Amino acid sequence: MPLGNKPECTKCGTRETPLWHSTDSGNLCNACLEDERNVEASTSSKTDEEDRSGSLKPRRSTRITRYCNSKATGPHRVVPKGKGRRNLFKKTPVKAPTATATPVTSNFVFYKGTYFQVGDIVSMQDVDGGIYYAQIRGLLTDQYCEKSAAVTWLLPTMASPSPEEGFSPETYIIGPEEDLPRKLECMEFVMHAPSDYFKLKNTPYPPPLTEKGVGYIWTTLRNELALSKK
User: Fold this and answer.
1) What is residue 41's predicted lDDT score, i.e. its pLDDT?
2) Phi, psi for residue 34 in degrees, rounded to 5
3) Cα 154 off chain centre by
């Protein structure tokens, strides 16, 4: 500026100030410029307080406004979840089916070192110490692996020796059959015998022979005699 010409503040009109400031609106004195700065600082602090209190809506991210179209037409598609670890563990557990008892019937079992089969003669003792003999009619294994046998009682005759002395099969006759099986732990093995040994002696009409083979399983006395003669 020309020497000797003092500028004038466009806001307050003063010509005396320790420092002049040139702005877009004109020359400002130092006091007016400080006032403007203080006003701007107070305005910015109020804006920050309003943002913290939540009165103003939060500004959306540039990425969201750029890639998300809020005015898109059509129904919103739901993307199914994948089979991740979180999704798998959040599923409702499926209960296992209820266990059912499945007893198994057979013609022979192995129990405590003894081979039991249909037709075997076993002995049983009552609470008073009396010994009784029976023939195994069928074998059963339950779901707990407990083995039982359905028996047919054998009745002694006048020619039978005392039960304590032993068992003589030719002197016994067939007796009543039990429907409920008894556990094998109550029985003691005596001898093997064909399954129809006592029935053939008591029936006037022997049943027809349908089984084949050597041994006592699924066989008859007549079949064993015929094979032994050969």
Assistant:
1) 83
2) -65, -40
3) 49
Give burial (CB, 10 Å; 0-12/13-18/19+) of 222: middle
- Residues 6+ away with beta carbon under 8 Å from 1: 7
Residues contacting residue 191 through CB under 8 Å, at least 6 positions apart: 120, 121, 167, 169
Q: Tens digit of pLDDT for each residue in 91-105? A: 677 787 776 767 888
| Secondary structure letter of residue 164 according to DSSP | T
Beta pairing partners, 134: 122, 153
Q: HSE of 56 in the Cβ direction (CA atoms, 13 Å)?
A: 10
Indicate whether 175 pLDDT > 80. yes
Chain segment 54-92, per-residue pLDDT in tens: 555 555 555 555 555 555 555 666 656 556 666 666 767
Q: What is the pLDDT of residue 132?
A: 93
Output the six-digit token pair for 223. Answer: 């079949």
Tokens found for residue 97: 């089916």
pLDDT given for residue 50 in this prediction: 65
CB 153 within 8 A of CB 173: no
Alpha-carbon Rg for the chain, nearest whole angstrom, is 54
Provide the 8-state DSSP code for 186: G
Instruction: Give me the residue label for tokens 């913290």.
Output: 52
* Tokens representing residue 82 in the block: 């994948």
Q: How far apart are CA 88 and CA 101, in angstroms?
A: 33
